[in-house]
Amino acid sequence: MAETGPARRAKQVQTVRGPVSASRLGRVLAHEHIFVLSPEFLVNYPEYEGFREASDVPEAVRRLNELAAEGIDTIVDPTVVGLGRDIRRIQRVAAEVDLNIVVATGLYTYRDLPHFLHQRGPGGPFGDAEPLVEMFVGDITDGIAGTGVKAGVLKCVTDRAGITSGIARVLRAVAEAHHRTGTPIMTHTHAGSRQGLAQQNAFEAEGVDLSRVLIGHCGDTTDLDYLMALADRGSLLGMDRFGVDTILPFERRVDTVVRLCERGYDEHLVLSHDAACYIDWLPRDKLPSVLPNWHYLHITRDVLPALRQRGVTERQLRRMLVDNPRRFLAGD
């Protein structure tokens, strides 16, 4: 007989401050960054409007507490190697915010592997096993960079270039780490070239249950046939770039979510912005004028009211913000 009541152990999700019961995740933004940095430029050319530790860390604390005050309880931060991940810095932020922060392991690259990996691993001159697998598994089971902070998700990427030989290595390593640990997988994709389908094919070939995969950046397209095809294979869809109006305007992003909800696909959707407190890919002084809605509060203040006005129900919103992220992170 299955255990019930207090005897049944609640599923735990790893956060920066330690494991949290999945039932306490609350409302989740499933794809947000805190800092996206280019460390070599930061160290060597700080005069080029570099990251400022003394002011940017407190500003991140302020903005995340502002988000928590809007009723968001958890964010997933898929900042991995290739995006300037520094878990000690995130720990300093997490200690001062009333928010759960789930962090990731993985590798961010669109085409080629870093030179560090060229002569290591399969096909290299030394006959090594794939080092990425042990790196990812260690981040999940032991903690990241000696901090004890354990990754709660695996992150990988395919963009316009598709699954190159280097990207294939990353996808296989992510799949193996998933099998060893049960950790869910989230991705970056290029929706315009339907890269999510290629990701699903690659993971399916490695024996991954596609319901444990969140295909990212699906909200960058209005191609309902593509989006429904992804969902029909079991994956969650990241409608996760609200505010990036230069790729797809606000009204069309909202309309895509509405049309999917009308077709019963709200059980496959999660919402987010893919925003950051600071990203050095874009000039700090120009970002507000180019992307004025790309910030953490756009969903609570603009997107949710627009969805409600278009007939999306509170039950559907709860699925997208609470139930679906919880199911993904906890493996329910």
What is the third-level CATH name, the topology? TIM Barrel
Order of helices and strands: EEEEHHEHEHEHEHEHEHEEHHH
Strand content: 5-15%
Shape: globular
Protein name: Putative metal-dependent hydrolase with the TIM-barrel fold
Family: Belongs to the metallo-dependent hydrolases superfamily. Phosphotriesterase family.
Cofactor: a divalent metal cation
Binding site for Zn(2+) 2: 155, 188, 217
Characterise this structure.
With 332 residues, the chain is of the alpha/beta class. It has 11 helices and 12 strands. Strands 3-5-6-7-8-9-10-11 form an 8-stranded parallel beta sheet, sandwiched between helices. Strands 1-2 form a two-stranded antiparallel sheet. A two-stranded parallel sheet has the order 4-12. 44% of the residues are buried. Residues 1-8 have low confidence and may be disordered. Zn(2+) 2 binds at residues 155, 188, 217. Keywords: Hydrolase, Metal-binding. This is Putative metal-dependent hydrolase with the TIM-barrel fold. One of its GO terms (molecular function) is hydrolase activity.
Brief description of this entry?
GO terms for molecular function: hydrolase activity; zinc ion binding. Pfam families: PTE (PF02126). With 332 residues, the chain is an alpha/beta fold.
List the helices and strands and how they pair.
Elements: E1 12-15, E2 18-21, E3 28-29, E4 35-36, H1 39-44, H2 53-69, E5 74-77, H3 87-94, E6 100-106, H4 131-141, E7 153-157, H5 165-181, E8 185-188, H6 195-205, E9 213-215, H7 224-232, E10 236-239, H8 250-262, E11 269-271, E12 278-279, H9 287-290, H10 298-309, H11 314-330
Parallel strand pairs: 3-5, 4-12, 5-6, 6-7, 7-8, 8-9, 9-10, 10-11
Antiparallel strand pairs: 1-2
